[in-house]
Amino acid sequence: MSTAWIAIVLLAVGTIAIKAIGPVTLGGEALPPRLEGVVSRLAPSLLAALVVVDTFGTTERTLVIDETAAGLAAAAVALALRLPMFVVVVIAAAVTAGLRAL
Amino acid sequence: MKAGLVFVLPTLAIGMSFGVLAEPVMGATAAIVMSILVFAGAAQFASVSILAAGGGLFSAVSAGLLVNARFLPMGLAVAPALRGGKLRRAAEAQAMVDASWALANRGDGTFDRDIMLGATIPQAAAWWTGTAIGAFGGALLGDPATLGLDAIFPAFYLALLAEEMRDYGALSSALLGAAIALVLVPFAPPGIPVVAASAAALLGLRSR
């Protein structure tokens, strides 16, 4: 088996295990009350991180402000105007594509 | 399932770029098998770019797993919403992808299982189809970046984040999470910044 195939199998097994750990160990139990506050904060913490990493991060471990950042700024304006989510993402893509075409 | 439809186009486009990138490294069949078995875009990109750059098996696999480590805290959060015995829960958890997890989040710490599973179906179809198109016909395609499709994901996450901003607690965790991620991007391997940002949720410990 080539390196690539071994990598695929190991990564698949590892990913399946990571996804399953929480649901299997917790079962159907509700979370301990002490942890509820933490879990309800996971979404804002992770979402904010995904926003900045997807917008400013690059595959070369650098931070850049480019067309994607402009698209995100446009999305923020659209959100402030209470536009629907579908419109918000279309505006982000359109602004990013428009600036790249310049 | 409708909720996932907005991601069909961007997922297809990103799947195509994955296929284009992976085909010369591992061949078309392996690229498609990887999209089916690993089924996690960012991790697949991370590992294939390392293999493409001549990196070894250990670096390629560990980079992919680090990128996917965020599914551990995300899985803990979604666990009470899943159904059935251990095996079924483990299987349902495989439908967890970023966009579906975020859509299923009700914003009060609970999750809607049906939305998460349903939203993943069109995304999975788009991801596998996109990979196949990219792997077999990569040379004929343009760059999805010219359409700005890559900007759809952060914009979507921002929209969901806006809905989370119900109190100062959520705001403080979001700001801390973003700060942790930004500070780590230049120093940490891909994936770690987002995983580390989950530490910002610990601010919730003292709030109850």
Can you characterise this structure?
The complex is a heterodimer of chains A (102) and B (208). With 102 residues, chain A is mainly alpha-helical. Chain A has helices at 3-26, 33-56, 67-80, 85-101. Chain A has a domain at 1-30. Chain A is 77% helix and 0% strand. In chain A, helix 3 runs antiparallel to helix 4 (85-101). Chain A is flat. By secondary structure, chain B is an all-alpha fold. Chain B folds into two domains: 2-102 and 111-148, no CATH class; 165-208. The two termini of chain B are 35 Å apart. Chains A and B meet through helix 1, helix 2, helix 3 and helix 4 of A and helix 1, helix 2, helix 3, helix 4 and helix 5 of B.
Mean pLDDT of chain A: 89
What's the end-to-end separation of chain B, in Å?
Answer: 35 Å
The helix-and-strand class of chain A reads mainly alpha
Number of separate helices of chain B: 11
Q: For the report, how would you describe the main beta sheet of chain B?
A: none
SS summary, helix count of chain A: 4
> How many β-strands of chain B, per DSSP?
0
Strand portion of chain B, in percent? under 5%
Mean pLDDT of chain B: 87
Shape of chain B: globular
From the spread of the alpha carbons, the general shape of chain A counts as: flat
For the secondary structure, the number of strands of chain A is 0
Q: What integer value in Å does the Rg of chain A equal?
A: 19 Å
Query: Using CB atoms under 8 Å apart, which protein chain pair has the greatest interface?
Result: A-B, 77 and 103 residues
Topology as H/E string of chain B? HHHHHHHHHHH
The residue ranges of chain B in which pLDDT falls below 50 over 5 or more consecutive positions are none
Helical residues, percent of chain B? 55-70%
Descriptors:
heterodimer; A: 102 residues; mainly alpha; 0% strand; B: 208 residues; 2 domains; 11 helices; 66% helix; globular
